[in-house]
Amino acid sequence: MELPAIIIFALVSRPREFFAPITMIVAAFLGAICVVGIYAYLPIRAMMDAPLNYWNPQTWVMFRAVVLSGGAGLFTLEGLRSIPQVLTSNGPQIIGWYGEWLTPAGRAIVSVLGVIGFLTLAKRDWRIAFAILIGFCLPIYAAVSVPNMERGRYFIMSNWLLFFLAAVGAQTVLIAPLKKIDYGSLRQSLAVLAIGACLLFPCYMAHNLWDSYWHTDHDSEVFIDGVFSRVKPNALVLSWWGASTSLWYGHFVEGKRPDVTIMDDSAAFPHHWENLIPAIDLNYGKRPIYAVSFPDELERYGKTYQLRKVVDLNWFGMTLHEVVGRKDKQAKTGLY
Predict the structure, then answer these.
(1) Range with lowest mean pLDDT among 114-128, 148-162, 234-248
(2) What pLDDT sits at residue 186?
(3) What tens digit of pLDDT does each residue of 15-37 get?
(4) What is the 3-state secondary structure (H, E, C) of the chain?
């Protein structure tokens, strides 16, 4: 997520060197090494036993599917144009995450010092400030664009940059003025106190980063009940790995809806399926079939089968659709 920011900084800082042939050659060579280094574990892991149960990358087609899963469209031109809209529409949720991580005073301190730090860097060198802004926004944009369980964990680099800006802001409003004091002993004493206060800030700002007692988080329970309360008896529910984790827990551990079968992409590999459409083919007409899936999966199912939206689940943007007919036998009116 930070590579675009680094590339843009290099481009605006030294454009002539950036476009030099030797730079392009070396960058392409190192880029290939990095890509191989990052993704080499997939074919290595695919040769082990037991195999990966999600899209086991034993072929080039499956390898590409695993590498691109979840990120398709994020960094296309259309996706990049949507960044302001995505960040704005998800603003309350993003602020809510920081509300869970930091105390009210901590949020105020980080916000004020972060803005001061950004303005300070912009005054010193607008290029590094611009690169940091991109590096801060891109991981958040990617995190909120992909349905997942607890997406706040993907903010780690954004948070690092945010606290870096807060540190620059603290230096600007606390340390820099102290250096202007003429009396050496007073300057040194105040500097020690100011630095000590800065070191104590994180202890005062942190709210529950290490608190694993999530007794007030009932999202998964609401999601489980939302699905199980709407599906018909003996239903087959097609899911994705994040949602199926919750549904399996409700099904196997809590004993809810023992008549229901939850199936996700982990079932495709042992059956040598490319996706879950064969599961629909095998069960259509024999039992009710529902889908709690990504939009692209719903689109894929919708090419062969008619889908009717049953309910919005209010859980990471998920909806519950029912398979109500084949495309060649049912009218499309009112259906997905």
Answers:
(1) 148-162
(2) 75
(3) 999 999 999 999 899 988 988 88
(4) CCHHHHHHHHHHHCHHHHCCHHHHHHHHHHHHHHHHHHHCHHHHHHCCCCCCCCCCCCCHHHHHHHHHCCCCCCCCHHHHHCHHHHHHHCHHHHHHHHHHHECHHHHHHHHHHHHHHHHHHHHHCHHHHHHHHHHHHHHHHHHHHCCCCCHHHHHHHHHHHHHHHHHHHHHHHHHHHHCCCCCHHHHHHHHHHHHHHHHHHHHHHECCCCCCCCCCCCHHHHHHHHHHCCCCCCCEEECCHHHHHHHHHHHHHCCCCCCCEEECHHHCCCCCCCCCHHHHHHHCCCCCEEECCCHHHHHHHHCCEEEEEEEECCCCCCEEEEEEEECCCCCCCCCC
pLDDT grade for 333, boundaries at 50, 70 and 90: very low
Closest C-alpha to 290, from 244, 222, 256: 244
CB atoms within 10 A of CB 170: 20
- 67-71, 78-82, 110-114, 170-174: least confident range: 67-71
Q: What's at 67, amino acid-wise?
A: V
The answer, yes or no, to whether residue 80 has pLDDT greater than 50, is yes
CB 208, CB 100: distance < 8 Å: yes
Distance CA 167, CA 87 (A): 24
**pLDDT value of residue 71:** 56
The answer to whether residue 8 scores a pLDDT higher than 50 is: yes
Q: 217 and 152 in contact (C-beta within 8 Å)?
A: no
Q: Which of 99, 244, 101, 118 is nearest to 172 (CA)?
A: 118
